[in-house]
Amino acid sequence: MKVYLMQHALAVDLEDGSDRVVSQAGEAETVKIAKFAGAHVDFAVDRIYHSGKTRARRTAELFAREVGVSAAIEIADGLAPMDDPAIWAKRLSEMRSDVMLVGHLPHISRLTAVLATGSDVTEIVKVRNSGLICLEKKDAGWRLDWMIVPDCLR
Predict the structure, then answer these.
(1) Three-class DSSP category at 132
(2) Which residue range is the domain that position 89 belongs to?
(3) How many domains does the chain have?
(4) Nearest-5° angle of CA 71, CA 76, CA 148?
């Protein structure tokens, strides 16, 4: 089983405090990542879950469209910035199908650490806006399979 973890695209800070939207630069980076993944990785998921925040939903939609998957895109609890990563670590341990989670820092970073090491105390991967992490579950647990960040695709 594989899980794909993505931090939402770069977002615009809104003065009125409303839910932040993805910036043009963020959209471009997400499209670039998705096109690269679509061309170089066997990417197939049944579901893409996001936090429900506008920037996470839009990132999920852009990625799915550009990579060419017709996966269901759904809001899921437990993906907000400060949520306990153990929530999704447990859910993923019970899943058998590949899924994608689109969320926020520090949650995505902490979830990566929990899956790979069992602890979220140490940041093991520097997560970046629109960055995509692939973890694969083997008999011995989760391991980093690959990671793509926008800076690598200039």
Answers:
(1) strand
(2) 2-12+19-153
(3) 1
(4) 60
| Tokens 């960055």, located at residue | 131
Tokens for 93? 């341990």
CATH number of the structural domain spanning residue 72: 3.40.50.1240
pLDDT in the model for residue 3: 98
Burial (0-12, 13-18, 19+ Cβ within 10 Å), 31? middle
- Residue 70, judged by CB atoms within 10 A of its CB (0-12, 13-18, 19+), counts as exposed
Cα–Cα distance list, 49 to 34, 44, 73, 125, 153 (Å): 16, 14, 6, 21, 25
* Cross-strand partners of 146: 134
Is residue 50 within 8 A of residue 76, CB to CB? The reply is yes
pLDDT in tens, 117-154: 999 888 899 999 999 999 999 988 999 999 999 888 87
Per residue in 66-97, pLDDT (tens digit) is: 999 888 999 999 999 999 999 999 999 999 99
Structure tokens, 75: 């809001």
Range 3-25 average pLDDT: 87
